[in-house]
Write a structure and sequence with these properties.
globular; alpha+beta; 58 residues
Length: 58
């Protein structure tokens, strides 16, 4: 069983080339699942990569 890797908001924004506001909308609409740890949101890397593929049209 593989370990789930989480990345921070800044890394997600860089990967998807989106703004903070766009990331917030993706999170609030349930498109991207996030866990809040303290003041930071952490995103599952697999979910982010899947969204990136959809964005590219694969």
């Amino acid at each position: 069983m593989s370990e789930i890797k989480f990345i921070k908001s800044k890394e997600v924004k860089d990967l998807l080339k989106i703004r903070s506001c766009d990331l917030m909308h993706l999170r609030e609409s349930g498109v991207l699942r996030a866990e809040k740890k303290g003041n930071a949101y952490l995103y599952n890397l697999n979910d982010v990569e899947e969204l990136e593929k959809k964005k590219r049209g694969e």
